[in-house]
Amino acid sequence: MSALSKLVDLARLPALARQVRAEGLTYLSPAKLRSLVACIDRVARDGVAGDVLEMGVALGGSAILLAARMGERRLVGYDVFGLIPPPTEADGEDAHRRFARIEAGESRGLKGRTYYGYRDDLLADTTAAFARHGQPVDGTRIALVAGLFEDTLPETGGPVALAHIDCDWHDPVALCLARIGPRVSPGGLIVLDDYADYEGCRRATDAFLQDAPFVREQAAPHAVLRCTR
């Protein structure tokens, strides 16, 4: 992509999306951010009931964007807020190579900053980023939950309008789909950030689709699943 094309691509983003990218708060490409905005706007337009969930909040960029566009809904973000767990045998070599660099301390953060997984208090940094953008983490409208998904993500709960799953590897993706899928409202959406990037995420998603009442509407730049119940 040429420099001019990149500028045009960025110019097509909403102002807040450009801001969180400029601050180094998200790794999402302009194409992924545009798609995510289209998804949150779509569930609002269609009157889909439920909360907004994000699994894999990191520095908060995409969650801040969702919170700013979700109206009166509730957003709950889940993350270890530290170094991510390793991939497993269910993942491909792509994931294992990536994690080896992270574990060795070789991963670089955005905009020259420290990689988010190496920060001393990522949760505090992320909470501050929400506040800077007018989306305070108050525990009611917006809540952030720290810990492993298997310990923090409930198996039951209220309806979900949109879930953004951005947790890279097979096992966490499979767990999130299993626990969230039954809660998604008819017409609700699940966005799989890493579907086009990591083999394990694709495998977990494709297995989920074999039996779940969802259709995959797109596969790139990330996967979007729609609930057909």
Bin the strand percentage: 15-25%
Number of helices: 9
Number of β-strand runs: 7
Helix- and strand-based class? Answer: alpha/beta
Shape: globular
Q: Termini, distance in Å?
A: 40 Å
Query: What is the average of the pLDDT values?
Result: 95
What's the helix-strand series? HHHEHEHHEHEHEHEE
State the share of residues found in helices, binned by percent.
40-55%
**CA gyration radius, whole angstroms:** 17 Å
**Strand order of the main beta sheet, please?**
3-2-1-4-5-7-6
Sheet of most strands: 7 strands, mixed
Which residues sit in consecutive blocks of at least 5 with pLDDT less than 50? none
- From the structure provided, what is the oligomeric state, counting identical versus distinct chains? single chain
Explain how this protein is built:
The longest helix has 16 residues. The chain has a 7-stranded mixed β-sheet, sandwiched between helices. It is globular, with a radius of gyration of 17 Å. It is 40% helix and 17% strand. It is α/β, with parallel strands linked by helices. It contains 9 helices and 7 strands, in the order H-H-H-E-H-E-H-H-E-H-E-H-E-H-E-E. Strand 1, helix 4 and strand 2 form a beta-alpha-beta unit. Helix 8 runs parallel beside helix 9.
